[in-house]
Amino acid sequence: MGQKMKEKVSSFLFEYDTPRMVLVRDKKVGLTFRMIQLGVLAYIIGWVFVYEKGYQTVDGIISSVSVKIKGLAVTDLPSIGTEIWDAVDYVFPPQGDSSFVVMTNFITTADQKMGYCNELPDVAPCKTNDDCTITAFRQSQGVMTGNCTPYDNKTKTCQIYAWCPVENDFNVPKPPLLSQAENFTLFIKNSISFPRHGVTRQNLVESVTSNYLKKCVYHKENDPLCPVFRLGYIVEQSGRNFSELAYKGGTISIVIDWQCDLDWPVRYCKPTYEFHGLQDENKVSQGFNFRHARYYKEDGVSKRTLFKVFGIRFDILVNGQGGKFDIIPTMTTIGSGIGIFGVDSQEKEEVYSQNGQQLNSSSSENVYDTQLNTYKSC
Fold it and tell me: Is 68 annotated as a binding residue?
């Protein structure tokens, strides 16, 4: 028992094995082997190092966005008269951040005041008072009083207590009332930071000066760094038609992408812009809309003008990453490459001798034992 333990300990401490090197003189095998090595080398250098930049540490971005919109539109409607619309009137919210709406169409219901009036025939038709339950329900614009009263000479509807007259939004103006919005301009100011690398950057790059900013308008090919965008061009680049989108509203995303190699001077870190239409063609609940009101008093009575607003919602998304040289991923990548070469260099189960004869595993063991015994006897 003690002798066996001693042999095991001795074997563990004083014996080791090494891979056996075999010289193969075969043109096909040699050429195949070198081609595999060349492919592995091309993968490590071309893909891992050059394309994927495996020698860099990558950092995500922290971002802030602010916007300003400029442009004027004029409407002349019987309900509200002639009006001039500027950014204060058609941008929601007025401060303008990474998500905002530009009004392109609307329905007005003027001079509403609290009182009793009839609901619309499509919402609450009736024949007797029994058809009008004293309650509020989902489609109604007010609270039912329980009375069925004439809406016109032919129709009766339930009476409600609400802001009267009630809104009738079945006829959306076409063409859009603010079709001039196509030529409004959007100024985007984007500030980013790569905190791990201590780098900050703005989309107002070195080539963007005050004089340049007053005149430039973004174009994908001719002026890709200008931060001033025409709304019509944004919609066009998203693959949508502005007039169709402005009719009932929709959603557009503006993607600012920063892909920066911070081993180069920071002036080469520049943004690119992409535009995507996010509205599908579903006929149910088309477009984008909401309501807001202008409140006022007339002869001591509170009144309002109700607007059902159709608009284009813009969502600004900022993506990106910055890579910079780091010794740790560099050594890790080199080690992985060496490991791949090691796997590539492993002998197959069948080894070709100089004479083209195959040596099976048992004959390989015999060669190894013979060489080992020769080594021990020296």
Answer: yes
